[in-house]
Design goal:
Length: 329
């Protein structure tokens, strides 16, 4: 009330809706910018990842497909041939494959650290140490190949499958030593982001393998022994291709020739490789055990054939996540 008895008009401030709307609009724009920034970063990182993972997936699928193709051509020869090829490649050679791959995985850590620290010379030294350690491991594992037949019989496999599998395993001895050189070479090149050359060489070997397998089975009719020899030949194409690329100028910073330094520190390298090999084998062996157990069923040939085909499809599919593991490494 004023002194004249009149009621004063109180001025109530009006809300500035335009200002609040502008703040909301600004916050929305900031949110959109953040979303666009996140999307852009995801796109950039995805391209970097696929630059590594894409060739890695292809090379692994191509290498594994050689085993599938070999078994497929063996299946064209008969149930016994397919069962023997399945036992020899999935069980005996698969055991060897898992151990060699795991031991070579130690090279991923060492080469990755050396490359990141710009100690490029050490990558070549680590590669040669891995060759030496894995080659010695191959020599130690030779009894597994030489006495495969009695071992399979001892595990309850049918006599005819054990006999033919033991013969096939002997023809896989060159492939056994091939793993010791192939897997370290792949990790050596992978740590330098040279996955493309691995993919190119693997593709060429796959095409040659298909052609030679067809000639061996249908034209020359060399039987299941011939299909085993084609697998050796195709894998050595990969090894020789990667080795030629490494030695003849493909890796000038990381390969400076053979050195006696590779023979130093072998014990420490062996311990690291062995722990990696056992770890991977524990993940890999239960597939092989299933096939061995199937050999104890009635009508073992058909049972082993069916399960090995299913396991091969599963293994073929696993090459994709394995390549992503390599990309994250």
């Amino acid at each position: 009330m004023s002194r004249h008895g009149e009621v004063e008009d109180k001025k109530i401030p009006l809300l500035d809706y335009s200002s609040s709307n502008n703040q909301i609009k600004v916050s929305e724009d900031e949110g959109d910018d953040k979303d666009e920034e996140i999307s852009r970063k995801v796109w950039i990182e995805s391209k970097k990842l696929w630059h590594v993972v894409g060739p890695a997936i292809f090379s692994r699928l191509a290498s594994y497909s050689m085993f599938l193709i070999t078994q497929a051509f063996a299946g064209h020869l008969g149930d016994l041939e397919l069962a023997a090829m399945s036992i020899s490649s999935n069980v005996v050679l698969g055991f060897d494959f898992g151990l060699m791959l795991g031991m070579a995985s130690a090279l991923e850590t060492l080469c990755g650290q050396a490359y990141g620290a710009k100690k490029y010379y050490m990558l070549g030294v680590y590669l040669q140490r891995s060759w030496i350690v894995l080659f010695l491991c191959c020599v130690v594992m030779m009894p597994l190949f030489l006495f495969a037949t009695p071992l399979l019989k001892l595990l309850g496999q049918p006599e005819d499958i054990s006999e033919l599998s033991g013969v096939l395993v002997l023809y896989f001895i060159p492939l056994h030593f091939c793993f010791a050189f192939n897997f370290p070479l792949q990790r050596f090149l992978q740590s330098q982001l040279k996955n493309a050359i691995i993919a190119y060489v693997s593709f060429g070997a796959l095409v040659i393998h298909i052609l030679i397998s067809w000639l061996i089975v249908y034209k020359f009719q060399l039987g299941v022994i011939g299909t085993a020899l084609t697998l050796n030949f195709s894998w050595y194409i990969i090894v020789l291709g990667l080795l030629a690329y490494t030695i003849f100028g493909g890796c000038p910073e990381t390969w400076s020739g053979f050195t006696m330094e590779a023979f130093s520190g072998l014990w420490q390298f062996l311990k690291l490789s062995a722990s990696s090999g056992v770890m991977l084998c524990l993940e890999n062996w239960y597939y092989r055990i299933l096939i061995l157990m199937t050999g104890n069923l009635k009508n073992a040939e058909i049972a082993v054939d069916a399960l090995s085909i299913c396991m091969n499809i599963n293994g073929w599919q696993l090459m994709i996540p394995f390549a992503f593991f390599a990309g994250t490494g």
